[in-house]
Design a protein that fits this description.
Blueprint: H1 9-28, E1 32-40, E2 60-69, E3 73-80, H2 81-92, H3 96-102, H4 104-128, E4 133-135, E5 139-143, E6 154-163, E7 166-175
Antiparallel strand pairs: 1-6, 2-3, 2-4, 2-5, 3-7, 6-7
Helix pairs in contact: 1-4, 2-3, 2-4
């Protein structure tokens, strides 16, 4: 199999766009639209959040799932806290007050599941392209004003989506070489 750096930028963009659009349409009945894409090289500074449209101190719920095999990497999905609660309510058929009453754990579970499904569709696109890989266990990061800094051999691609007037950021880190 060719090295991971042979995965074209266009293929990565297509795989993440399909993943976000399919999962949001199927699980939430919502349309997600790709707004912007960016590649961040290792010589650029890492922003606290990979979104020029999100306040650095705005609370976020971030789901992450990795993939390992012939393609290796992590995908972080950044949900502003309000959007995470909105997604949870739709996914679980709960009103805003019910989501608030249930607390962070139910939101974490919903965002973990949405992230797992989204990265699963992305991984299937890689597998269909000849890059066999499997998923890692989802995890959740909560907070504001934090940064993700990968190892220097990782390439970072950032994709901005709009869904129901909310901003979703898909932050893809892929490691090339050994």
């Amino acid at each position: 199999m060719p090295p991971t750096e042979c995965i074209s930028e266009q293929a990565i963009k297509e795989h993440i766009s399909k993943a976000v659009k399919d999962v949001f349409a199927t699980m939430l009945g919502q349309q997600a639209h790709l707004i912007e894409a960016a590649i961040q090289s290792s010589d650029q500074p890492w922003p606290p959040l990979p979104s020029p449209h999100a306040g650095a101190h705005e609370p976020h719920v971030v789901g992450t799932v990795g993939f390992i095999g012939e393609a290796n990497g992590l995908i972080y999905l950044y949900f502003p806290d309000k959007f995470a609660k909105f997604v949870t309510g739709i996914m679980l058929g709960m009103k805003e007050a019910e989501v608030a009453q249930e607390g962070d754990e139910v939101v974490n579970d919903a965002i973990g599941e949405i992230t797992n499904m989204t990265v699963g569709v992305f991984k299937n696109g890689l597998c269909d392209s000849g890059y066999s890989c499997r998923l890692t266990i989802p995890s959740i990061l909560r907070g504001a004003n934090f940064s993700i800094e990968p190892i220097s051999t990782a390439a970072r691609r950032i994709f901005y989506f709009d869904c129901a007037g909310h901003r979703l950021v898909a932050d893809i880190l892929m490691k090339f070489g050994d």
